[in-house]
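Q&A log
Question type: sequence-to-structure
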Amino acid sequence: MKKNKYLYSLILMVTFFVGCSEDENDLSFINSVASPTEVSAITTIAQDNTGLVTLTPLGTAVINFAIDFGDGSEIVEAIEPGSKIDHIYTEGSYQVKIIGNGLSGKSTETTQTVEVSFNAPENLVVTIENDTTVSKQVNVTASADFAMFFDVYFGETGNDEPVTATIGETASYVYTDPGTYTIKVVAKGGALATTEYTEEFLVTAIVQPITSAATPPGRAEEDVISIFSAAYIDEGGADYFPDWNQGSQGSGWGPFDVNGDDMLQYTNLSYQGIQFGAAVDVTSMEFIHLDVWTADEITIETSLISVVNGEQPYVSDLTPNEWTSIDIPISAYTDLGLIVDDIHQLKFVGAPWAEGTVFIDNIYFYKGTVQTIGAAPTPSLPAANVISMFSDAYTDIPVDTWITSWSNAVLNDIVLDGNATKEYSALDFVGIEATTTTIDATSMTHFHTDIYSSDFTEFKIKLVDFGADGAFGGGDDVEHEITFSSPATGTWVSLDIPLSDFTGLTTRANIAQLIYAGSPTSNTTVLIDNVYFHN
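Response status: OK
Response body:
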């Protein structure tokens, strides 16, 4: 799985370099491109005493590789990403150098030992561990004399395919459920004989947060009433585990620390509460906020409790194994008749009852409207007139990637009002590619995309056609970029651009790249929806 990710990203790097080479301005980022990273090679050997070794070079931000086989033979240059190369060794130990060459001319070199032996692997040592950051992921490393690689059968029902890794490297696998599994490791070398190791291993889930919740934004003192948050000054005297007989319900409480960040841990949550040091008037506040982490499939009910007229609840869904940020309008309580000028307690209730554990941080009331972004406008064109790359309104054509390895942005797939949306944050530029099956837009007249940002000052769209050969290079690639200065912010902007405006795009039968760019560079967030060609 790791191998496929690297090979794919490397192919896309080459595609971008050629597809964008005609626009000098767009290549200005090359000088800041980092050297290749994660350069290595997967090495396997034919188990037939021939010494035939296959090397598959890997790396990030690499346009080609060179390999020095370490046996005095000629160095092989310009190995394309995704390629394998065979080499025949005699028995012995060799230091193989893999050189990854980057887009900017920078190179990174790594050395791996290749042991070629026709003896069966000996002295096999296997280490199996639960990953400390990924829930239910198991990592396996192995070493052995006379072995070059190993296969790991992780023993989950329905998956009989092994994960292969080079000796000294790590093979990883994420299980569906925790539990005990039989893990088998098979060490292989140049001989027909193999050596095996089997272990019954307990796979565990991570049931507590390993990172903090997002840091709350800076607010004026009069705009926040904090109950528990290091970001603000808390109201004093709060009791985070008042004796409401929760213990008899199986529920417990304790402080919890993540790298110096304190939070509240409520175990086996039936109901829990917080007693304020003094009642607070939240009539001028607009929301109550809390961040909640759980590993369980549960919901949490948050109640505000008034001194004089009781309590009202609000139920929130929680996403397991990540922080859920909750903002509840105060009106959700006052609409039910609750008086909020004397709130002296909070109550949390878990469902199912007493079956989940939650970690809570950043409990505070605040004012300052939270902007709710609705979905992009729904397109109304007939499907027969549309070639859709991304839109819930149409059937989309295949797109290889919505963020290439050479992009400078972060992609997050989000849902707005039930509508799938692409979010690009820290956006400088992002490449989107349909190279396996290019797009024939010769019968189309317009390119459409809906964009939303609260902070961009400029937005660019580039289309790249790979020409009649349908592949990058060959001298027939064409492209054109259009710039939108000072687009409207805080609202969806529908861009419906005549393809004739892309004057440099002289052919449209093999469109393979769509590139978005935004300013301020690497400091803007843009939402994207309804990406399609139409007539």
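Response note: Residues 2-19 form the longest helix (18 residues).
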